[in-house]
From TrEMBL:
Name by which UniProt lists this protein: YVTN family beta-propeller protein
Pfam family, one: Phosphoesterase
Family annotation (NCBIfam families): beta_rpt_yvtn
GO molecular function: hydrolase activity, acting on ester bonds
Signal peptide location: 1-22
Source species: Chitinophaga niastensis
Tagged with keyword Signal: yes
Amino acid sequence: MRYLSMSLLLGFNLFLTAAAFAQNKTNLHHAENSSPAVNARIELPNGWSLTPAGESVPLSSDLPLNMALSPDGNYVAVTNNGNGKQNIDLINLKEKKRVQEVPVGTAWLGLTFGKKYPYLYASGGNNNIIVRYILDKNRLINKDTLTLGLPWPKDKISPTGLTLDEKNKRLYVVTKENNALYACDLQTMKPIRMISLSAEAYTCVLNPVLPELYISAWGGRKIWVYNTHLDKLVDSVTVEDHPNDMAISCNGKWLYVANANSNTVSVVNSSSKKVVETVNAALYPDAPIGSTTNSVALSADDKTLYIANADNNCLAVFDVSKPGHSSSKGFIPTGWYPTCVRVWGKHLLVTNGKGMSSMPNPNGSDPLGGKYNTLYKKSDTTRSKPFQYIGSMFHGTLSVIPVPTESMLNKYARQVYLNTPYTKEKELVASGEPGNPIPTKQGDVSPIKYVFYVLKENRTYDQVLGDMPEGNGDSSRCIFGRHVTPNAHALSEEYVLLDNFYVDAEVSADGHNWSMAGYATDFVEKNWPSNYSGRGGTYDFDGSRAVANPTKGFIWNYCQRAGISFRNYGEFMDNGYPTISVLKDTTHYCKNYPGWNLDIQDIYREQVFEHDFDSLVQAKAVPHFNTVYLPNDHTSGMSKGSHTPLAHVADNDLALGRLVEHISHSPIWKEAAIFVLEDDAQDGPDHVDAHRSVAYVISPYIKRHSVNHTMYSTASMLRTMELVLGLPPMSQYDAAATPMWGCFQPTADNAGYQARPAYIDINARNIVWNQSAIQSAQFDFSKADAIPDLPLNEVIWKSVKGESSMMPAPRRSAFVRLTLDKDDD
């Protein structure tokens, strides 16, 4: 089997030109969520940039996952599957205009037009239906519905991809909850056969020549082969991790399979059922995960393959005129998180899952009235106030890109490299300074031997540290100030204040993945919106479902492979047991330490930690990497009988202070560092951006009493710990991130920390029965963020400021720098 790297063949001139481009930038001040000017660069909150090619058609909602061209080629239907409105947009391609928005309720991925008749078939997500529309005079009209089962949670089916066999009047549908293939009769619109599969399925395609249907095993690293004459599975082909979208040549001989977790496309010979070639679509050879190769399309002559790299914000282009001997042609820049690519004549169509940029949020949780324009959780369907929620505000776009000439493709490729902060050089050698305790290379020695990584839940910078005049804070939004969080303030004053730190995640579903792997897989990114918007599906994250996990695992897996000792306190735990195998050895987790349970105080968790830690100190067996979960700053809102939000946060703060005090007075302190962050910021009030969050770094090697304004992120903190521990980056994101070496100095100050006492009653409980209490009673606190964050934040605000107070709208900064590159022609 041949393995082809995209980047090796592009040529060193791309890097030289990209470097030259970087010297010619003109700063602008603002960017709207629309198509930018030619060569305009939009910098995203994660440090990556966009220079989207072609024209942009705004879509009506977020996370478009798939599209289907009408038989006459005049229209394209796009299915929007995000946290907001789930619907189908009908686009007039000649006018490049959205002409219809079809409400669906629930939708997920599956979408196809018939070739003989203008019927559109669309997956109804967890409603477990397939809806058939007819295209008539510029409109999609609901014709009828095929039912696979009762809606979630009665039946857990969840149809995903589908395909038509019009000749035999069959519709084939695959699913990701009961893991099955359904063969359906198009005349009766009923399923006639169900075949069980051994893993979650993503989509299916028919061979145009052979009586074969190919099914991508999203959770199984294989392609199943189903014989449509025999009506049974007859074979399978092993591919790479997270196979999803597929394309097949017109002669039926070549099947191209995108592998999202591997940055690759498998080229399969349909006759021999063997992979003849694996195409690496990443920008650099041997890059870590992070390209998220998730869609493929062939040109009409089958000679060119287009590959959508969701997390690289680009298309990779290959010459596949000789399968098995393919060659790279270049890259094309797209919008943010491209999820689907299709060919329309002499144009490429690309759906961008997150649109064109991060942007301001002027209509956040406004308490003045109106109605929500997007769904939250089922527990929150009665609310009637306007807002812009981070999970649904980034409306997708459709890019219409003329198929580029060779010279244009070269220019596009240079832009893509310039947009990408990840390089192989950064992966191998990080930024830093001589003598700093944070190494610049994996394996270099650090005086820090023991790392403690503390995860908390869901607070923004202004909510906690907005009252500190030394930082960029807004005290009007500070509801958990010094009187509630004396230790957070003291740690920021005695060590380093970080006022420009941003979480990479939107919510806890992807937040714990980002915090523990520096990446969220396509399964996580594409599934959490359904769960969070109350459209069915279980909470399949935090290690609880294998298909959601990165190929090489989480930071504990990297420690295990490197021979670095580690121990876990509460993270990735469910009912007292670890959710992932790497933690299940009792030497790797503290069985007495509680996981998520807001009825248990964090000061109790800290006491359990102290007892366990002391026994390890006495045995001289303290692990070099330790994860500690302190979740109670999440709060239980105003739920009657639960601890008040102030008590929860004060308890969390006291636990953190005591933990730092205990470690800092231990024998290992002189070789230790403590890193603290929130898994996500969950849309709380912050005058800069709702991704901005609190973070703390504590060590004898910290520059004491300093303020650091450097832009850091979750990935930055991970990269710093990896360098200390001698671990490689886990993804392209932490490899590209700036390590936090600017917080450290070569000389140590071994003075210990003295925890501040709580100034308020940490045992206080909610006793008032008001509107906030009634609302809180409807929330589900059984899982992290199993409730809508904006309403919870408003409840928390009112609990502190008064029931009649008005919470400031969450702010979503443009967070971009638009730059114009000089034309190199």
